Amino acid sequence: MARDATISQQEVDAVAEQLRVGGERPTARAVRERLGRGSMATVLRYLQVWQAGQARPVDSAVALPPALQRSLVDFVGQEVTSRMKRRGKVKSRLLPVSFDGTAPSFGQEVLRGDLRAGEIRSSCDGRGMALLRLDRLDGSLSVEGQGVQVHIPDWLELAG
User: pLDDT tens-digit profile of 122-148?
Assistant: First the structure.
């Protein structure tokens, strides 16, 4: 047979509100300690009712100015068009390279002038492998101030 509750919803509401106003988090344990009586299950049930009443309705959606809306639509459209155009195209490739001086260490940037063309992935005895952007292979490449020569295999077709 179930026992009658020794606490009421109003008591739990009052204590939970006191805790909230005091900067504390109203938990079942904190409410029960403040009340000094009641089962944890009853306190939790009443606290959940109080918490459900604390939910605030969601504010209406914020409308963006028409000029900003148009700019966002244009930007997204350009991005989608650009990505669809480049979809499926290989932009970088791991290629064999050789160096004019000592072999650079892993991760060193390969440059074409001031532009980043890729990075060294491995090197030993004046040779190595570099992950290079295919659109920056023309012109002279360098790493740490020394020249880099790219050796494109005969079977690799770069046109496209």
Answer: 988 888 999 998 888 888 898 888 889
Cα 150 from Cα 148, distance rounded (Å): 7
Q: Which letter does DSSP use for residue 127 in this model?
A: E
- The pair of structure tokens assigned to 20 is 């909230």
Q: Which helix (H) or strand (E) holds 143?
A: strand 141-143
Q: 43-47: long-range contacts at Cβ-Cβ below 8 A with a sequence spacing of 24 or more?
A: 43/7, 43/12, 46/7, 46/8, 46/9, 46/12, 46/13, 47/12, 47/16
Which pTM value belongs to this model?
A: 0.46
- Contacts of residue 142, Cβ cutoff 8 Å, sequence gap at least 6: 110, 111, 112, 148
